[in-house]
Amino acid sequence: MKEISLKFPKNFFFGAATAAYQIEGAWNEDGKGESIWDAFSHVPGNVDNGDTGDVACDHYHRMKEDVAIMKELHLECYRFSVAWTRIIPDGDGAVNEAGIKFYSDLIDELLKAGIRPLLTLYHWDLPLALQNKGGWLNPESVNWFTRYAEVVFKAYGDRVKDFVTFNEPFVFTDFGYVTGAFPPGIKGDYRSKILAGHHVLQSHGSAVRAFRKIVKDGRIGIVLDYAYNAPATQSEEDVAAAARANEFWAGWYFEPIVFGRYPQTAAKWFRERGQLPPVTEAEMKLIAEPIDFLGINHYFCNYVKADPNNPREGTAPVYPPVQHTLMNWPITEDGFYEMLTYFRKVLKVPLVITENGIALNDIVTVEGTVEDYDRIDYMKRYLSALSRAIEEGLDCRGYCYWSLLDNLEWAAGFKDRFGLVHVDYNTLKRTIKRSGRWYSALIDEKNK
Ligand code: BGC
User: Fold this and answer.
1) Mind listing the pLDDT tens digit for each residue in 327-343?
2) Ligand 1 mutation pick, 297, 401, 417, max ligand atoms within 8 A of CB
3) How far is the CA of 420 from the centre of ligand 1 (A)?
4) pLDDT, mean of residues 357-383
5) CA 107 – CA 144 distance, rounded (Å)
6) Residue 5's pLDDT is what?
7) 194 close to ligand 1 (CB < 6 Angstrom)
8) Does 312 score more than 70 pLDDT?
9) Alpha carbons within 13 A on the beta-carbon side of 313
10) What are phi and psi of 164, to 5 degrees?
11) Residue 230: closest CA among 217, 242, 215, 222
């Protein structure tokens, strides 16, 4: 690790991120339709401890209080997602005005507080009615998503200038069809995973095209998760193994968006197994529709070595002897720096770090404070790597910490706390953690 240095240009923005299902609650209020996450979390055994997003942080009813907290933290940007089921309850039918109003009020409140909204259209909560029609496996999904996106662009494009189409296509397609940890909860079906991903990528491109017609003065991108695979040693075999691993994971979505083609080794692998559908030139052109920025969510890095006996990509993980978080994710800021260096070389559009953060078991002390020094340490290490990469020429425009609030960590439930703000799930009381105060001082320092 290098010396900690946290220098950021004045026009670089610092924010925090959330997602609708993880914080809003009010799962069936004001005309909202049921999403796949509502249905999935209501089945016992799917989410740890039987937790659900029915109430979550109750943000739906406490939106003004939460924006006031963001203001108190001096945040410059707030990344949130819109629940498709609030806007179009059954996914492709009538528009629900109460849903439109909720986000419209949120956006007005943010602008009043001087906070820039960054809106994500899809953070995993597909309308259940569309899942019942095949979900992302149905080629019609491209039209469903495009129409939903158009409704959102028309409703908010006058005030919101930064949009994201999808959050982490790798995660929701892989966990939905291979590990089965997320809805629709299917295991081992690579063919469906790749097909769903192909429709998601086309939906992304189609929404970008619609955006250009509706919002003339805005920016649009996609958010990809990049748990970077770095070589365990600099041997030729390990370097090649890491490149292969990247193709099969994040690269499967990164390369079509950035280079206009699926990664070659992985594509050959999936094609030989009948798992990759025929891909037309027009589809690829749609997928690679130019974007204005790329969002990257990054939490940790994997170290891999070549292992010819491994039947998948011929790679095997090497576990670094470093600290791990409550999610058991290694703290590997040097790998983050290495990944940023790769982006500096290949990316032609600006980068935004749309998520980065650490889960801890935070508690409120008798004095009513939360002393999460480990989070401050994590942020310093990762932000220092980012600061260094920017000094070396990386065009990165902003950073959103994950997350503003402690919230429902999907299938892991409420126990893993990622927030700058503690939430007591019994009383729903919010307490700004020490890390939140530290972050706001960092923002002030940058703006001095
Ligand atoms: C997701 C968030 C999630 C976070 C921590 C990302 O994969 O976008 O919704 O809570 O990581 O796991």
Assistant:
1) 999 999 999 999 999 99
2) 297
3) 15
4) 98
5) 24
6) 84
7) no
8) no
9) 24
10) -125, 135
11) 242
Q: Is 243 helix (H, G, I), strand (E, B) or coil?
A: helix
Contact 5, 67 (CB under 8 A): no
Residue 197 has pLDDT above 70, yes or no: yes
Residues whose CB falls within 8 Å of the CB of residue 434, separated by 6 or more in sequence, listed in order: 369, 370, 371, 372, 373, 375, 376
* Smallest CA separation from ligand 1 atom 5, residue: 409
Instruction: Give the total residue count for the chain.
Output: 448
Question: What's the rounded Cα separation, in Å, for the pair 83 and 409?
Answer: 17
Percent of the chain beyond pLDDT 70? 99
Tokens (6 digits) for 121: 């259209």
- Closest alpha carbon to 80 in 403, 444, 395: 403
According to DSSP, the residues that pair with 231 across neighbouring strands are 304
Average pLDDT score over residue span 18-44 = 99
Band (pLDDT 50/70/90 cuts) for residue 313 is confident
pLDDT at 331: 96
**Active-site residue (options: 24, 76, 168, 283):** 168
In this predicted structure, the answer to whether residue 418 has a pLDDT above a threshold of 90 is yes
Does residue 29 carry a catalytic annotation?
no
Instruction: Check if 355 has its Cβ closer than 6 Å to any atom of ligand 1.
Output: yes
The pTM for the full model equals: 0.98
| CA 403–ligand 1 middle distance (angstroms) | 9
Cα of first residue to Cα of last residue in the chain, in angstroms, is: 27
Told to judge if 283 belongs to the known catalytic residues of this protein, a careful annotator would answer no
Identified catalytic residue from 24, 283, 313, 355? 355
| HSE (side-chain half, CA atoms, 13 Å) at 147 | 12
